[in-house]
Specification:
heterodimer, A: mainly beta, 7-stranded mixed beta sheet, 4-stranded antiparallel beta sheet, 11 strands, globular, B: mainly beta, 10 strands, about 0% helix
């Protein structure tokens, strides 16, 4: 069964840091670009970042560029999101997501989502 | 690329035909997906490539459009369809979502 399992969320003070992890199973992880998507409480979905299968290319939303870093360890089938200089507006559920195909470099619909991990930025 | 969904919410009855629209700020060919999300749950993929039904999704869901204007149609609304629906453009990074349409029970 294809699965994604996020971890690492929690409460952090403004200006602090947090690293999220997403453990993948049931598919050839290294063949797929992967994305992070977030959802603030009561709000819509926001794409945050993506990384190619090899890890050589990364992409970010303007709202997190320069503060967040996406990475992956294909030997561990794990995706990461390092979040620095956190702000109150980063408070959200963070999902990792897998694209439906491996052929478009990650710019494809997300057929598999994790259950999400909550990040709360507050003093 | 900005995506504008309309309406932002609607009330409908079981059995109704429901149409949700999504307009892109520039042409995105057929690189559009639709998702359904229920409270406390991750989004679920319904439609990709504007009109291709994801495996396991009921045939009452359909998608159409290309370029800048897209539509999600539910032909006969069922009780389990009350949820929030999002479009997403997949033409290029960043992969923006529409603002969502909440479908509520009338």
């Amino acid at each position: 069964e294809v699965q994604l399992l996020e971890s690492g969320g929690g409460l952090v003070q403004p200006g602090g840091s947090l690293r999220l992890s997403c453990a993948a199973s049931g598919f050839t992880f290294s063949s797929y670009a992967m994305s992070w998507v977030r959802q603030a409480p009561g709000k819509g979905l926001e794409w945050v970042s993506a990384i190619s299968g090899s890890g050589g290319s990364t992409y970010y939303a303007d709202s997190v560029k320069g503060r967040f870093t996406i990475s992956r360890d294909n030997s561990k089938n794990t995706l990461y999101l390092q979040m620095n200089s956190l702000r109150a507006e980063d408070t959200a559920v963070y999902y990792c997501a897998k694209p439906i195909t491996m052929v478009r470099g990650g710019t494809d619909a997300f057929d598999i989502w994790g259950q999400g991990t909550m990040v709360t930025v507050s003093s | 690329i900005q995506l504008t969904q309309s309406p932002s919410s609607l009330s409908a009855s079981v059995g109704d035909r429901v149409t949700i629209t999504c307009r892109a700020s520039q042409g995105i060919s057929s690189y559009l997906a639709w998702y359904q999300q229920k409270p406390g749950k991750a989004p679920k993929l319904l439609i990709y490539a504007a009109s291709t039904l994801q495996s396991g999704v009921p045939s009452r869901f359909s998608g159409s459009g290309s370029g800048t204007d897209f539509t999600l149609t539910i032909s006969s609304l069922q009780p389990e369809d009350f949820a929030t629906y999002y479009c997403q453009q997949l033409n290029s990074y960043s992969l923006t979502f529409g603002g969502g349409t909440k479908v509520e029970i009338k």
